[in-house]
């Protein structure tokens, strides 16, 4: 077993993905549903009386992989895997780079990747490993390939150290090898993890303003969108689209970008959720403030993350999704779930079955349901009238 493990890490090192690895040693396994809860297609039928996550600090990410496992990333308690009716839990003691798991993706090669508050980890089907090696030789050679994955930098905030050096707040030349800070992203393709610097453009900001703040979002025609705290960058394989406070004419009166969620819907509309100024809508021609358009900005709003919004407002949007009939859903930090049917917007809160208001992620489950990852550590679904617990 030891020899096989050494050979496994040697192969990863040669392909430049590398690892710090531990044998799978989950912190706890909890038995759950019986075989009677499984359908003919081997999809687990949740029995909420027995299958419940033990997390209490919030669910940040969800993924159902091709092998029938369902993964749940917590806000700061590690990772859970639901397989064959049992939960298995993982933390930094069992191979995670950090106990905050912001995003989970499955690669074409079947590996499952975990974008943590700090660093990356990968599950190869047998063990969880910390990914260390990166390829910085193609920092300006941007491309999009089928099935590639994109990740933020190594730190919870700030810049990728491989693209430049950390510097003081002030003028930043993106993509230029000036010795200033040069933010970028990592791309996993062909079993290698490449670093790409963002294109050359200038901004004013501090060390946190232009670091990645959201999971990447896929759009039509291979479009990829990246959300930073103070910018949105899109790349279609040929050209970049960039939104900043300057390009949108945002100021202290309008409020500034503080991007916390991105979603391009089935119609090609880009939705940008902010922590303070609500939802922006981009139709390919112009950006409008959707929250203001629908009178969902509270009177006296301070247009910032530290301001707690009252009932009836849509200002702190951490999650966006789309259900199977085309409704757009927004998850707000302070006011719960919102559904937009193309004409009207409806709010669902504690009185509709939500345990708390804060929604971290909206996930399209393989069975067609829309799952809402909640701030109290559970997963909810909408049954057509109210919300009920799934996990």
Describe what this molecule looks like in 3D:
The chain has helices spanning 2-14, 290-293, and strands at 20-21, 28-30, 59-64, 70-74, 79-83, 86-90, 101-106, 112-116, 120-123, 128-131, 149-151, 170-173, 184-189, 192-197, 202-205, 217-218, 224-228, 231-235, 240-244, 259-264, 270-274, 279-282, 287-289, 317-322, 328-332, 336-340, 345-348, 359-364, 370-374, 379-382, 387-389. The protein is mainly β. The protein has a five-stranded antiparallel beta sheet, with no helix packed on it. It is built from two helices and 31 strands. Helices cover 4% and strands 36% of the residues. The model is unreliable at 1-25, 28-49 and 157-180 (pLDDT under 50). A hairpin with a 4-residue loop joins β29 and β30 (379-382). It has two domains: 1-54 and 91-132, no CATH class; 55-90 and 136-389, Methylamine Dehydrogenase, Chain H (7 Propeller), CATH 2.130.10.10.
């Amino acid at each position: 077993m030891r020899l096989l493990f050494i050979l496994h890490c040697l192969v990863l090192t040669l392909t430049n993905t590398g690892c710090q690895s531990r044998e799978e040693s989950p912190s706890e396994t909890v038995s759950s549903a019986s075989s009677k809860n499984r359908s003919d297609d081997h999809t687990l039928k949740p029995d909420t009386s027995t299958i419940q996550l033990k997390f209490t600090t919030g669910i940040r990410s969800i993924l159902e992989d091709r092998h029938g496992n369902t993964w749940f990333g917590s806000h700061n308690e590690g990772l859970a895997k639901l397989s064959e009716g049992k939960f298995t839990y993982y933390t930094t003691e069992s191979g995670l780079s950090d106990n905050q798991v912001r995003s989970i993706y499955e690669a074409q090669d079947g590996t499952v990747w975990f974008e943590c508050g700090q660093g990356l980890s990968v599950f190869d089907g047998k063990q969880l490993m910390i990914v260390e090696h990166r390829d910085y030789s193609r920092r300006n050679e941007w491309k999009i390939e089928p099935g590639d994955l994109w990740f933020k930098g190594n730190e919870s905030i700030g810049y990728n150290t491989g693209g430049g050096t950390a510097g003081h707040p002030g003028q930043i030349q993106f993509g230029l090898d000036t010795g200033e800070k040069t933010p970028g992203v990592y791309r996993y393709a062909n079993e290698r993890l490449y670093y790409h610097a963002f294109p050359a453009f200038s901004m004013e900001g501090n060390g946190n303003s232009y670091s990645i703040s959201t999971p990447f979002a896929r759009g039509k025609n291979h479009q990829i969108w990246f959300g930073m705290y103070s910018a949105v960058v899109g790349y279609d394989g040929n050209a970049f689209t960039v939104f900043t406070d300057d390009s949108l004419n945002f100021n202290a009166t309008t409020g500034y970008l503080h991007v916390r969620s991105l979603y391009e819907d089935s119609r090609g509309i880009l939705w940008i959720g902010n922590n303070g100024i609500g939802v922006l809508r981009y139709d390919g021609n112009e950006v409008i403030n959707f929250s203001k358009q629908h009178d969902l900005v509270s009177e006296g709003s301070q247009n910032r993350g530290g301001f707690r919004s009252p009932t009836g407002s849509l200002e702190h949007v951490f999650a966006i999704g789309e259900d199977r009939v085309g409704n757009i859903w927004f998850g707000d930090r302070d006011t719960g779930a919102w559904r937009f049917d193309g004409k009207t917007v409806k709010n669902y809160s504690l009185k509709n079955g939500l345990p708390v208001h804060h929604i971290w992620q909206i996930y399209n489950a393989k069975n067609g349901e829309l799952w809402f990852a909640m701030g109290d550590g559970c997963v909810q679904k909408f049954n057509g009238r109210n919300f009920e617990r799934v996990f």
